[in-house]
Amino acid sequence: MTKPKTVEAYIASFPPDTQTKLTAIRTIIKKTAPEAEEGISYGIAGYTLNGPLVYLGGYKQHVSLFATASQRVATKFAHDLAPYKQSKGTIQFKLSEPLPTELIRRIITERVLENTGR
């Protein structure tokens, strides 16, 4: 199987429930950081704006938002992120649960501020 070369192809490679979640997060990223460049990096969807901004990955039971190990994000949103499985720079959202769209938007906004020095 060939690796996807576009974010559209990457998302399309997943089952419908995963596609729905990935598309929703992609929409949030594009609305919150319209100037970010989109592409495939490390085999997943990646967004850059003055360097790496966030990555988006699909998996069997969850989707992940990779906030590039931002200590600023981890500290600022520690309470809000507590219910979600996390590892260094990664937040997992189960397919069986609603996406925390407002939290995702706030994380993207924080990453934009961090990358642009505001």
How would you describe this protein?
The chain is an alpha+beta fold and 118 residues long. The chain has one domain: Aspartate Aminotransferase, domain 1, CATH 3.90.1150. The chain is 42% helix and 25% strand. It is built from five helices and six strands, in the order ααββββααββα. The protein has helices at 7-12, 16-32, 71-76, 78-81, 101-116; strands at 37-41, 44-48, 52-58, 62-66, 86-87, 90-94. The chain has a six-stranded antiparallel sheet with strand order 1-2-3-4-6-5. β2 (44-48) and β3 (52-58) form a beta hairpin. α2 (16-32) packs across α5 (101-116). The protein is globular.
Number of strands: 6
Name the structural class. Answer: alpha+beta
Radius of gyration: 13 Å
How many distinct domains? 1
Number of helices: 5
Shape: globular
Strand content is 15-25%
With strands numbered from the N-terminus, the spatial order across the biggest sheet is 1-2-3-4-6-5
Order of helices and strands: HHEEEEHHEEH
Mean pLDDT: 93
CATH topological fold name = Aspartate Aminotransferase, domain 1
CATH architecture: Alpha-Beta Complex
Low-confidence stretches: none
